[in-house]
Amino acid sequence: MAGNIPSGLLEACLVLGVSNERLKDIHLTQLQGKGKEPLVEAEVLQVHAPPFVTKESSSNGTQQDLDSAFCRGQRRRSFKKKRDRPLSTISDSGQTNEPVVSGSDDLSVPQNIDLIALLQLCFPDGLRITNESREDSYHFLVFTDVFGNQTHGVVAQYCKPVHYQQDNGIHQNSQQLKKLQRLYTTFSICVISKYPYYNALRDCLSSFLLQLKTSRMCDFEEQVKEFSAKMALVPIPPPGPLNVVFNLRPFLIELPSRLDVDRPVMDLDLHLPFLCFKPKQILQIISSILMEQRVVFLSTNWAKLTLVSECFMVFIHPLRWQHPFVPVLSRQMLDFIMAPTAFVMGCHTSHFEEVAEELDDLVLIDIDKGTVSSSTSNRFDLPDVPLTARDCFIFRAKGLQLHYDLDVCDAASRSDINDQRAHRRQWQRKVNSVILNVSMELIVNIFSEVCDFLNYEHRVFNSEEFLRSREMTDHTFYKKVLDTHIFHSFLRDRLNQRNDAFTRMQLNIRSSESRRIKTLTVSPRRPTMEAINRKFVQPENGLNRRLGMSMPNLADHRLLTVPIRQTSMGTMTFQSAGSWSPSRPIKTFKLPDFPPPLSYQYVQNYYNDLIRDLSKAISGASPDDSALLARYYYLRGLVNSVAGKRLDALTDFQSLYKTDMEIFPAEMLNVLVESLPVEERKTAERRPDLKRLISRVKRESDRERARPVDGGSVKRFKLPKKHLHMEDFVRRVQESGIVRDQGTIQRLFEALTVGQQKQVDPETFCFFYNFWKESEGASQDVDLPVVVLEHLETDECVYKLSSSVKTSHGVGKIAMTQRRLFLLTEGRPGYFEITKFRDIEDVKISSAPFLLLRIPTLKIKTSHRKETFEANLKSECDVWHLMIREMWAGRKMADNHKDPQFMEQALTNVLLMDAVVGSLQSQKAIFAATKLAYFDKKKHEVPTTVPETTSETLKHKINPSLDQTAPQAVDILLYTPGQLGVSELDGGGNPKLWCALSDGKVLVFDAASWTMQHNSVQVGKSRLNCMLAVNQQQLWIGSKDSFIYIINSRSVSCNKQLMEHRGAVTGLALEERTDRFSQTLAYSCSEDSSVIVWDVSTLQVKGQFRVPCVRPQSIQIHNGMLWCCGGDCLLEVRRNGTVHRKVSLPNHLLSSPRGFSSFLLFNESEQLWAGFADAGELCVWHCRDLNKPFIRIQLKDCTAVVCMIRVKNQIWVGCHGRSPEGKTRGKIYVLNKDRYTVEKELMAHEDSVQTLCSAEDRYVLSGAARADGKIGIWKVE
């Protein structure tokens, strides 16, 4: 949620220059010829800060309090002029004006502004009184407080002539005037804002100076105050596709909104650095910032210092600079460069030599010359960014179109200045969007792999493993970056799973094939054959390579071949790094013309006009454009709050909360609620919608305050120094990244503690960890000849290589991949395939005679070769025997159950066996390794085969809990069809499978390949009960916490929710429109028996009623009537909520504690099918006459019906069943709806079937409870 955002553009406006008295003294000095262009000390002449107007005094003279114009209520301090004599400015005619600020006036100054520093920064070159006029100039400032909060300033310097008569007398009516001496003084007007609106504020000041130069100087103070008051009336637009435009003649000025909540305002020309530096130098500057060096920008132009350095702060997003940032240093501030910490500062080029001589480790960046050097040499001595990222960035940068004149050389000249400026802004917005994507892609290419070495449960980053995965040439860069504060903050955001621009581009930038590899595998890291090939043949562009760290994938290899990613050398098509696509149009909202801003009544009228215009915009906006509606609600709520219409503001914020939670200003709402008078507070609490909003925001605010201020700690993985019991051992192994599954780690614990106390000593853990990592390192160095690579699939990895042994097919080394065993022959390198694991018939150990000894020999019998393969593995024989048997058993389980994860788990077990044997080095090592032979033992305990019907119907199984430490229950599954003509940027046109896991987590799979498509979306913290696709853009999810969460199915983000229910939402149904003019209505039911009717387009409640049943569980629309399934009955309800018909529990089930569990209705056969939560049977009623005897269908070995769906002419029923051994099983029964018979009985899962859904009647998908936690994909006949 957005924070308490200051609502006005202006924080303060100051006028700085030389007082009238000081000018007279300088004038006398000039007459005496004692100096030329003396350097004088500037003073603060005026300070203007909100509030500017309050409610007019009552007739008795008392001041009544009211909300002031965009007042932020912040602390301010008084600044009082010390001179006794009044200050004066000098008019063009030489007349002395009235005092600008009297000696007794208090100047209200924002608390975080240092006036002494401001005087120096507004005149960084010093203030001189000259004999010649100078052109107006602008420069930009950044102020940072001790908490890191930034304030921004735009300074306009303009020159004014000063006239004095030599005798200091004034004789306007005299016939002869004394000779005048003309001097010129410079004034600075500094506008300070919380936001870096550099271009917009410069335009505002330019417009104001045009007005100032044509007006009388006696009106100077009033004009500055009026200008400041106008700026304070300008609201800041919320993040998103809506900019605010206002008229400040002669300019129309546009305030751009933030692209996203996590991004700062970008009112910058991001192409400026590309005009000043070559791509190589830009990368050097970014590298310096990422390594937190002491960086000094140099230029002869003060404006360039801030604009260019701010661009680099944008380029490193989402990493945030956390050290001193002072882009403009006056000559009095040069000692700041002696600071012992990292910093980014800027100063005039004339100070280059002085700065370079002071310190030895400065990075000096000359903007004018486009050079980057060290203070000790002319070269840049710091490490470059990684080669892959560097090559990509340089290639992209060369394709940028950065010259506006080239783009408009064929366009007609524009006669209207605002039209010309709008066209220039549009061009700049387009260029900025492309540059943002280029810079974000650079950061993603540098840091994308970091996420693979994070343990989210324990908040650990395995830095050593990450470094080991990098190219040796990049180690120096990463070693420096990994120790910085900026990187630590980045890690914290990743561990908090922040869904920012980095995360979105990280998902987009990876091809679907590489995402598939990462998503579907959890096996230990080894280089694939493709990665080994890349050691010798690099792709042309070197983009996004995995650096030998791709994970093996055991699914169909034909689908998983990862081609080398090629990049077209023509025009690049960039994906959006932010939440708004670059092609998405940006709307503008024009503010009303400014009133006389120092009159309370006129300001109130302005607010009323602004509210009226926003109301018109809301009524005229399309209900489908919720993003735009949310921004209008935000602005109207903001204006209502400052206009004193607090209840109206609460109503707007309540609408905003339902429309887009992402930009909801929670802190602002809390402040607004606390300021409510007693009567208004009572009124708000009498409105249920406002009362719920206030209480929910308060709870969320309390929860937010309870979180760590720093966002949570980040730990680096370290080896233990004390003995580990089971719980500590599980945590340490998970932190190490070796394996995450708790069951596997517990078996590993048993293996390492064989024959001793149930604790692992630090030495054993260290030996085991080092052996594991040495094995990984050895696999990186496997050098396979080309003749061998030709026989292997591109995604295969060599996991184990024996020593050189004698075999029945010559001398060589036995190699094991996830698919096969092969012999790497010695002498002349060759390849002999021993067997694929699925072809093994037997593996055993025997002995072969050698002189007087008998050497252990491993014999492998396969189905595709008559002779048995023999290998004299000697001391390695036992461990190879264990490993091959485990891989064989895992392969059989994976093939029989159509579940590739079994093979992946077997592979993990095998590598753990090898590490256990290698680390223990004792007689008990082999026995210890047997503790990890999970599948080899399981095939002896239970049959590995599955029933023929189940095997023929099952197509595949996927595990949505791969990134979890334990399986999670699959509570809901929903299939949504693909959409033609939808780009991948907008969510892709492929069909999707939505999977709701425990505790409010939703995963999205590409249903064309059954691969995970996006990261999880968190919708609340409670169990999710139902899911409904109401249209192509909205997915509604009912939760146990009584909320309906709305996910945008294209962006896969949840920013809306409906809060009207009081109990757990259990069912959702959609009523299709009868014609194109009618409304689409949705129905929802909750456990407290309430049903709410919703208008889908507006999300407004159209009706509400209660149904007389216990615990409603689901609802359906049938023939214009609403059917509701409760625990005690089935109800047919009219639209007004009255009951039309009722079906009670059958007599033989009246004692059932839970009653009905699910039901189905059919139009053509007029049938009503129902299942029961405590009985393994179905009942079928005739809808035309519910009094007719119903049909009972018994389901063998079923104890409860959980869910059912109709697919073609079949009914698929998901049940809770029991095996003959009494173990829980999830079974699916396929029934013929006409003959009422069971056609198939499928052994689906090892736990209850929780949910079923159909994929276009071609497949049925089943989700299992926690003990299984998998998704089954079944073919439909």
From TrEMBL:
The keyword Repeat applies. One of its GO terms (molecular function) is guanyl-nucleotide exchange factor activity. One of its GO terms (biological process) is regulation of Rab protein signal transduction. Residues 76-103 are annotated as: Disordered. Residues 72-501 form the UDENN domain. GO terms for cellular component: cytoplasmic vesicle. This is DENN domain-containing protein 3. It comes from Carassius auratus. The gene is LOC113062548.
